[in-house]
Design a protein that fits this description.
This protein is mostly helical and 149 residues long. 69% of the residues lie in helices and 0% in strands.
């Protein structure tokens, strides 16, 4: 039990956010891969898939090795992958708004949209909050000195 406590205390909030970003990235890419094609968009966007899988690999690397800079790179790759996802689905979105392809966006689209966006936000927050450890009682680099006036 002490080994688990020591492992948990040695990690900052960014570690756990990287785990969540990794899970969201995998779910988002898997959903897009499985349901990203339709009659108006017959093929998947390769740059979206490459960027998102590369970002997932970088998130896995940040879980294994605690490098802050890699978290920012993963966040930017998730952002680019998310934008490429929107770019590839813009024809579908427009057809839904006009009423050609139904009146409602599908649940699969929302799942991919939300999870890819969350992967970007969580990996960005992981980079920002890498050293924040509220459970240790002291925050790394944010000590406040008591000064009396």
């Amino acid at each position: 039990m002490e080994a688990v406590k020591k492992f948990m205390a040695g990690r900052g909030v960014g570690y756990y956010l990287s785990l969540l970003a990794l899970i969201c990235g995998i779910v988002g890419v898997a959903t897009y891969t499985a349901t990203g094609t339709n009659s108006f968009n017959p093929e998947l966007n390769v740059s979206c898939l490459v960027c998102c899988w590369l970002a997932v690999a970088l998130c896995a690397a940040t879980v294994a090795f605690n490098f802050k800079d890699i978290r920012y790179i993963a966040a930017m790759l998730f952002l680019y992958g998310f934008l490429m996802f929107i770019y590839s689905q813009v024809n579908y979105i427009a057809n839904v708004f006009v009423g050609i392809d139904g009146n409602v966006l599908t649940g699969e689209f929302f799942c991919a949209f939300v999870t890819l966006f969350l992967a970007f936000v969580l990996s960005l927050l992981a980079g920002i909050l890498t050293k924040w450890r509220p459970w240790t009682g002291r925050n790394a680099g944010t000590e406040v000195k008591n000064e009396t006036v």
